[in-house]
Amino acid sequence: MTDSAIQITLQQTAPIPLSVQLNCKSGELLALVGPSGSGKTTVLRAIAGLYQAQNAQIICQGETWQNSAQNLFLAPHQRHVGLVFQNYALFPHMTVLKNIQQAITHLPKQQRQAQALELLKKVHLEGLEQRYPKNLSGGQQQRVAVARALARQPKVLLLDEPFSAVDQVTRRKLYRELLALRESLAMPMILVTHDLEESTLLADRIALLHKGEILQTGAPEWVAAHPKSATIARLMDQQNLFTAQVVAHDQENQKTHLRWRGMLIEAAYQAQFPLNKPVCWMIQSANILLHRRNRPSNGNKENPLQGQITEYMESSGLAHLRVQIDKQLDTTISINVPLHVAKRNALGLHEKIGISLLSEGIHLMPYQALRSES
Amino acid sequence: MDWQALALSVKLSFVTLLFLLPIGILLGRWLAYRQFWGKSLLQTLLALPLVLPPTVLGYYLLVAFSPNQGLGLWLVNTFGTTLIFNFQGLVFASIIFNLPFAIHPMQRAFAAIPREIREAAACCGMRPSLVLWKIELPLAWPGIVSAMVMCFAHTLGEFGIALMVGGNIPFETQTIAIAIYDRVQSFDDHAAAVMSFSLLLFSMLTISFTYWLSARSERTHD
After folding, report:
1. Residue B61 domain-assigned?
2. In which domain, by residue range, is B42 found?
3. Which residue of A has its CA nearest to B122?
4. Are A367 and A280 in contact (CB under 8 A)?
5. Residue B65 covered by a domain
6. pLDDT by residue for chain B (222 residues), tens digit each?
7. Under an 8 A CB cutoff, do B124 and A75 touch?
8. Residue B169 lies in a domain
9. What share of chain A is helix, strand, coil (3-state, %, to 5)?
10. How far is B23 from chain A (nearest CA, A)?
11. Shortest CA distance to A22 belongs to which of A4, A36, A35, A37?
12. Residues 6+ apart with CB under 8 A from A223
């Protein structure tokens, strides 16, 4: 992609397998998402020059930082990288101001303090210039780390799980601050996180990493709703993942019919999947309608199912239900409904309910054996 | 009190430190950060003076630098000097003997600096020499100073190796520890007591200082 501010290609089989091709535009925030040990931090370290992959090409803002074919490798101090470490890595023997000044090497000495103060103001830390890192809260330390990373006027900003060391309340506050801050940042930003909610909230695009390989990239909501494989769906924490058989493609009505555990269900038209062959399918909770218990709606005509609530949990304004489908004893479907809806419908453990699976929300994927269906 | 012997011991200690400081920093840092083949063997060799009786180490140095053979002969032929029964020899032996006392604390001090802090410095644009100067040395300095103080005190009181390699030549190789032994042999109990007490006092001060530094370091890094 020619409009990418940074292009990264990493290939190696050992000691850490990597198969990565990424790009990020100026001002774009790309989240590298994956489970622990998937290689997210290694990719970030390779971009910063802290890890040298065997076959790599990294081009940032037209400058080649690494090209294994030409035996070119720029050391970290030669790359203009702003890196916020997971534990912030502030210099413990220096004040907040000195920490930031260390990264301002491109300005004359007399201008460095003013620039550092300006950055502190940007991250809302005025008045804490003379504090030492050990006297700051986790959130304040994170802000200093961000200010220090920006102080170098980096060509790329790298954030390695920067919110993992703070409590939930501080994290929410820092999310808002980062979202506000990124409006004024023109460089590409790459965030490493294992938190899907965090990546959905902050990132323009996500790149899903698994065992060192990028499996899919795209807008967070798109990847969550349209995973290319059941593995990706699992990694995106999709609860309702099943196998079925394609029994018909109805082009006229734009429907694909599936046989799922003896039941026929309708999905959106997806003719690329051959007839009479097994497939994996998933549906997000947002595409499952709850039938009003005393006044059935039109929604119950679309893939209607009856079941019993076997799990009921309330958190953050949502009721998380697990519904066991009637006559399908080993099949459960997860649904999240707003708490007021759950209350209005008097939902609770062991209650019988009716649901509809919206056909437009049923997404098919190539068949693969699933360890256990939902 | 044998002031000449004390002055010689102090001089020996300072000269030893002059060599050990850069050697300790470079080797300690290298061992702290690098993994390489033979590292365990090198560390074992460097730690040998900790367990080897000083007289044994002194004996091997004496044999190695004997002007009649091998290395000693080469030194005489090349530089016209030898490293036994003179001050230079004493310095060399002292450096060898003190290597683990210098390197181990420094290695530990460098190893205690989190890798991310060094990496953060590099990402701030600091080249490796600047990272050493602005980040690593200030963070490792309590360990470095502690190592130097220990080496100084250790050299000041060293007896066995000094006697083996340097002999007991007044004004040339007679250190304060040898002087104490000398006074005891000649029944000058008062002089021996004064000198022994001085060394005892100095050792106590040294240990107190290193403990204080260690505690201060922990407070800084927490």
Report:
1. no
2. 3-52+88-221
3. A77
4. yes
5. no
6. 677 888 888 889 999 999 999 999 999 999 999 999 999 999 999 999 988 888 898 899 888 888 888 888 888 888 888 887 888 889 999 999 999 999 999 999 999 999 999 999 999 999 999 999 999 999 998 889 889 988 988 898 888 888 888 887 777 888 888 888 888 988 988 988 998 898 888 888 888 887 787 777 666 655
7. no
8. yes
9. 25, 35, 40
10. 25
11. A4
12. A206, A208, A216, A217, A232, A236
Rounded CA separation A216/B160 (Å): 70
Q: Tell me the per-residue pLDDT of A32-80, one tens digit each, with 9 for 90 and over.
A: 999 988 999 999 999 999 999 999 999 999 999 999 999 999 999 999 9
What would the two tokens of residue A304 be? 């209607």
Count structural domains, chain B.
Answer: 1
* Residue B155 near residue B13, CB atoms below 8 Å: yes
Q: Which long-range contacts (CB under 8 A, 24 or more apart) does B175-181 make?
A: B175/B5, B175/B8, B175/B9, B175/B12, B175/B90, B176/B2, B176/B5, B176/B6, B176/B8, B176/B9, B177/B9, B178/B5, B179/B2, B179/B5, B179/B6
ipTM above 0.90, yes or no: no
Q: How far is CA B158 from CA A194, B9, B83, B97, B103, in A?
A: 58, 9, 17, 9, 18
Inter-chain residue contact B116 with A87, CB threshold 8 Å: yes
CATH number for the domain that contains residue B213: 1.10.3720.10
Flag whether pLDDT at A1 surpasses 50.
no
Place of tokens 């990239």: A217
Domains within chain A, CATH numbers bracketed? 6-234 (3.40.50.300), 241-366 (2.40.50.100)
Among the partner residues A93, A134, A152, nearest to B125 by beta-carbon distance: A152
Residue window 121-150, chain B: list those with CB within 8 Å of chain A.
121-128, 134-135, 138-139
Under 8 Å between Cβ of A21 and A206: no
Encode pLDDT of A272-302 as tens digits. Answer: 999 999 999 999 999 999 887 766 555 446 8
Q: In A50-82, which positions are buried (b, 16+ CB within 10 angstroms) versus exposed (e)? A: bbebeebbbbbeeeebbbbeeeebbebbebbbb
Q: A369: which DSSP letter?
A: -
In a domain, B82, yes or no: no
Chain-chain contact of B119 with A82 (C-beta, under 8 angstroms): no
Q: What is the pLDDT of residue B88?
A: 87
- Long-range contacts at A52-55 (CB < 8 A, ≥ 24 apart): A53/A10, A53/A11, A53/A12, A53/A18, A54/A11, A54/A12, A55/A9, A55/A10, A55/A11, A55/A12
Residue pair A220/A203 in contact by the 8 Å Cβ criterion: yes
Chain A interface test: which of B123, B127, B130, B216 (most A C-beta within 10 Å): B123
